[in-house]
Amino acid sequence: MRKIQMVDTKTQYLAIKDQVDAAIHEVLDSAAYINGKAVKDFTQNLSTYLAIDHVIPCANGTDALQIAMMALGLKPGDEVITPSFTYIATTEVVALLNLTPVFVDVDPVTYCMDIESLKKAITPKTKAIVPVHLYGQAAPMEEIMAIAKEHNLYVIEDNAQAIGCDYTFSDGTKKKTGTIGHIGATSFYPSKNLGAFGDGGALFTNDKALADKMAMIANHGQSERYYHDVVGCNSRLDSIQAAILNIKLAHLDAYNNARQAVAKYYSDAFAGIAQIETPATANYTTHVFHQYTMQLKQVDREKFIAHLSAKEIPCMIYYPVPGHLQKMFSHQNNSHLELPVTDALTPCVCSLPIHTEMDAEQLSYIVEGVKSFFN
Ligand SMILES: *Cc1c(COP(=O)(O)O)cnc(C)c1O
């Protein structure tokens, strides 16, 4: 049996090696390493795929979030509401810009932003909401957009884990996640559903003025060559990464289908195990399973991990410490915050290997390995 890995980017590469190698060589031959044709082609193809007017490439997903907040003109002291139960990048950039992260709870079924918790967190200082489409399914965007409209707030979607996910509105219309808020931000980190062979990121918007501003900020605040209108940063997507992403974009739906098949296999296999709560999908969204994250009920998680580890089955805890309890935010005295769902999820979540290249032998071995713990 092939060694089981949380993510297997190597096998995925080998399946499309000829195409990828040719695309990389085309960039090498062109010598347009920055802002080359590959970058234009990829952003064009991605905007078509997402049905969004503007895609602005940048260096990584964290930068994308930062550039979005800079472009919206948020000022020190402004409050930005985000879930505590997410990867640190979402909240870190808020603090980096001297904005105030306000942590809210998540829904116990979807693990995405909880609407009641969001409503309670809004104050006169609130300027923006950053929902995260965690593990690959959408946050309840229709409600979030309605609340944002009522309070005149911006919405930046953190779509780093959900590219390709479809959101269905109550009137039946569908949109891709990342294209519903004022701005969508995503990451092309190698292990993401659409992953480069290095770092990469992008911003999405239908607002032309915002798109121009974000492109300017990502390029040293430059309006024309050597004329710098605002303080920006240097955040670019390399041509080589864009060329690789352009090849992989054509496979994205197939990749997401492959992840869904793995998730279904696990969930069917664990259906009879009372101590495992398998991931659920809300009725308004598809799930592209960036992670397969289950909850272990009344289980010693350390022992469970050790049991799998002895069988060389990797698993991960996403995430062991919620944002509001991270040391970097200790000055905020967040320990009094009541986030009961986040507090309940943190000690019991466990993510199993999921990627596009898992074979039947590996899947059955993992399922048997998990089941044997409960026998
Ligand atoms: C990966 C990720 C990011 C950051 O992306 P990078 O490209 O690593 O900077 C932000 N938010 C979430 C939810 C992520 O999973």
Give, in spatial order, the strands making up the sheet with the most strands. 1-9-8-5-4-2-3
- Determine the mean pLDDT: 97
The largest β sheet comes out as:
7 strands, mixed
How many structural domains does the protein architecture include? 2
- Shape, please? globular
Low-confidence stretches: none
Give the CATH H-level superfamily of the largest domain: Type I PLP-dependent aspartate aminotransferase-like (Major domain)
Cα-based radius of gyration, to the nearest Å: 21 Å
Task: Look up the CATH topology of the largest domain.
Answer: Aspartate Aminotransferase, domain 2
Task: Write the element-wise H/E pattern from the N-terminal end onward.
Answer: HHHEHEHEHEHEEEEEHEEHHEEHHEH
Describe the structure.
This protein is an alpha/beta fold. The protein contains 13 helices and 14 strands. The protein folds into 2 domains: 9-249, Aspartate Aminotransferase, domain 2 (3-Layer(aba) Sandwich), CATH 3.40.640.10; 252-374, Aspartate Aminotransferase, domain 1 (Alpha-Beta Complex). The strands form 4 sheets. Strands 1-9-8-5-4-2-3 form a 7-stranded mixed beta sheet, with helices on both faces. It has a 3-stranded antiparallel beta sheet with strand order 12-13-14, with no helix packed on it. The chain is globular and about 70 Å long. Pyridoxal-5'-phosphate binds next to helix 4 and helix 5. Pyridoxal-5'-phosphate is lined by residues 60-62, 86-87, 89-90, 132, 158, 160-161, 187, 189, 199, 201.
